[in-house]
Amino acid sequence: MQLQAYLDRIGFEGEVRQDLATLRALHRAHLMAIPYENLDVQLRRPVSTDAAHCYDKVVNRRRGGWCYEMNGVFAWALEAAGFDVIRHCGNGAETGTHLALEVRLDRPYLCDVGFGEGIVEPVPLEEGSFVQRGFEFRLEKLERGWRFHNHRFGLVPGFDFAGPDEAALADRCVALQSEPGSVFVQNAILLKHDDEGYTTILGRELRRITAESRSKRLIEDADDYLQTLRTVFGLDVPEAVRLWPTICRRHEEVLAQRAAAKSAGDPAPASP
Question: What does UniProt give as the signal peptide span (predicted)?
């Protein structure tokens, strides 16, 4: 596990200092270079919160990852660079469903390269709204810990976080890649940031999101899927072709759920 190899992976050049400018540059560079993705979960390959696992996958094998891996390797790199990092156990529906980071400089900052559609630069850990690339987010102080509110286009509304709990993170990492009802077991999810917004794959839908616009198209076939992984997300995972029948089947299930909800007059279920 070499810091310089990680810096090369994210395309960071220059001196690494323990200051806000460097933290911002590292945070942004990570997200612009490395995609959020759960292909290993879909391929039934075990993933882990272990730092060596995260490093090998993201740096050596030039893959992306989900929150445990993305924030896991980022936390390791920041600590290797001399930053003071706290790993927060994030809570969605259950404790441990998200790993978020706090970095202490002149004051505490929230860092998060693993939430997918969230922030691209660290923000002061204080109450209030803030805007990045035109997307508005908000931090709310709770009786214990904090709540992060996602932007209005986000599929996930946000998460709570309130300090370290490595056991809970490890437990949920296992559960979310194995439980049949897990959204990560049911759906192939990818997301890649750029300066204007982000592009995401949810099942067969390739979506482009900015603060000003949203668009989508259906991925046509397995070849189109692999080509999109390579050209948009920078991922060379030819074995993902095996996922295409399951992706198509899940797409039809979601369409059926939407149609049933519409006929019943209920709000349509969210896309995967």
Answer: none
